[in-house]
Write a structure and sequence with these properties.
two-stranded antiparallel sheet; single chain; alpha/beta
């Protein structure tokens, strides 16, 4: 998942099931909208019902239109090239531990060009994000 405003990756879960939305909303607040691809997880009746009950708008990316999804495409490319292509996961626990370490580096240590070459943490501290509704998140069914 990506926070479009501050370019933070609030969640990368290594799981066999997608059930992290409630956890994310509890810790970060409910976003105004969620942008997602059209994968089966995000067009399912259960997800749509949950988002509707929480009054969260669904924004779907047109199939075959990656330019509508630039933040996530950039993130997915980095995640794939810098992490998935170079790590070997012995088991699910190892995958989770290494994923958390990569996410923390991405969010806290790495300057982002789209943020004026400051880290996400520095940019976030400069903004009054806590006084607003949570910004939109981008959700993606898979990294290709």
């Amino acid at each position: 998942m990506l926070n479009e405003f501050i370019r933070e990756c609030p969640s990368i879960h290594v799981k066999r099931r997608l059930n992290t939305l409630a956890e994310l909303f509890a810790s970060r607040g409910v976003p105004q909208c969620i942008r997602s691809d059209n994968g089966p997880e995000f067009v399912s009746k259960a997800i749509r019902r949950c988002l509707s009950q929480l009054k969260i708008n669904s924004l779907y990316i047109e199939p075959g239109a990656p330019w509508e999804n630039g933040y996530a495409e950039s993130f997915n490319s980095r995640f794939r090239d810098e992490f998935l292509a170079v790590e070997v996961f012995e088991n699910l626990g190892t995958a989770r531990r290494l994923t958390v370490a990569w996410k923390e580096d991405y969010n806290r240590q790495r300057p982002h060009s789209s943020l004026g070459y400051v880290t996400q943490a520095e940019f976030s501290s400069r903004c009054a994000v806590s006084n607003r509704a949570a910004p939109s998140f981008q959700l993606h069914s898979e990294i290709t």
